[in-house]
Specification:
Blueprint lengths: L9 E12 L2 E12 L3 E5 L6 H8 L7 E6 L2 E2 L5 H8 L1 E4 L11 H11 L5 H14 L15 H13 L5 E5 L7 H16 L3 E5 L3 H7 L2 E6 L2 E6 L1 H6 L4 H10 L1
Parallel strand pairs: 3-8, 3-9, 6-7, 7-8
Antiparallel strand pairs: 1-2, 1-4, 4-5, 9-10
The site of magnesium ion has 4 residues, from helix 1.
């Protein structure tokens, strides 16, 4: 399979996306197509624009030129449509961002009831299924602070999944976790990948990238420098910047 394109049906399509923060050209002519069911791992040095890329796909950031479509539809600028379309893009951050004063169950049911207009009974049933899937069903009536970081992050994944997103974005989901909790979160993500979820994952966990990624995208200084299969990328990176990066982390 040629690694610069996808053989899957395109789901997330970025075309010539440019964004600045003041003088900083943080996203430079970004072209990226993520196919339905595909897992794309984004790696690169700190400050290269990986988080900005995720946030721009979810319209938490604006961009100046180019286009981004999800399942053929552009993300609208604002309003109700944006809330609904944004729900198609699940996002899990480094910090778990659970609602501290709501129970785990309520954290997972809130969005589906509000945005997806699900009944409480339906939302709760689905929430319990998802909490079981990520292994925290026993914590449903607790509050976030009563859970470990790994458990909270698994709840954050369940909460995103409860919205039935078309694509899940993960921005360094394990980098705030104690080492012993990293694998329990990566295992949930690996399982999710196996269910056919479309995923864009920013991570420094190269084991996960090798295991779960269909493609690796290497970013540096606001550019996508290289796109490759994990096999190609880790054994034979083409660019000097990728070689340099891998030399530092492996
Ligand atoms: P990464 O996630 O790859 O570490 P980021 O996307 O967070 O990179 O940041 C890319 C660059 O943009 C960095 O130089 C960072 O300092 C800058 N940056 C990020 N967010 C903002 C912002 N809100 N305002 C100004 N500069 C920002
Ligand atoms: Mg980042």
């Amino acid at each position: 399979m040629p690694s610069d394109t996808t053989t899957h049906e395109p789901l997330v399509v970025l075309t010539d996306v440019n964004k600045h923060f003041g003088q900083l050209h943080v996203l430079q002519d970004i072209n990226l197509t993520v196919g339905r069911g595909e897992v794309v791992v984004v790696i690169g040095p700190s400050g290269s624009g990986k988080s900005t890329l995720c946030r721009t796909i979810n319209r938490l950031e604006t961009y100046e030129s180019g286009s981004i479509t999800i399942d053929g539809q552009p993300l609208p600028e604002e309003g109700k449509e944006l809330a609904r379309l944004r729900a198609d893009v699940g996002m899990v951050f480094q910090s778990f961002n659970l609602f501290a004063h709501k129970t785990i169950l309520d954290n997972v049911t809130l969005g589906p009831m509000k945005v997806r207009k699900k009944s409480k009974a339906d939302a709760q049933q689905r929430a319990r299924e998802l909490l079981t899937r990520v292994g925290v069903e026993a914590q449903a009536d607790k509050y976030p602070a009563q859970l470990s970081g790994g458990q909270q992050q698994r709840v954050a994944i369940a909460r995103s999944l409860a919205m039935d997103p078309k694509v899940m974005l993960f921005d360094e989901p394990t980098s705030a976790l104690d080492p012993e909790m990293i694998n329990e979160v990566l295992d949930v993500m690996t399982q999710l990948a196996q269910t056919g979820m479309t995923m864009i994952v920013v991570t420094h966990e190269m084991g996960f990238a090798r295991r779960a990624a269909d493609r690796v995208v290497f970013m540096s200084d606001g550019q996508i420098v290289e796109t490759a299969t994990p096999e190609e990328f880790f054994t034979n990176p083409r660019s000097d910047r990728a070689k340099d990066f891998l030399g530092k982390i492996l």
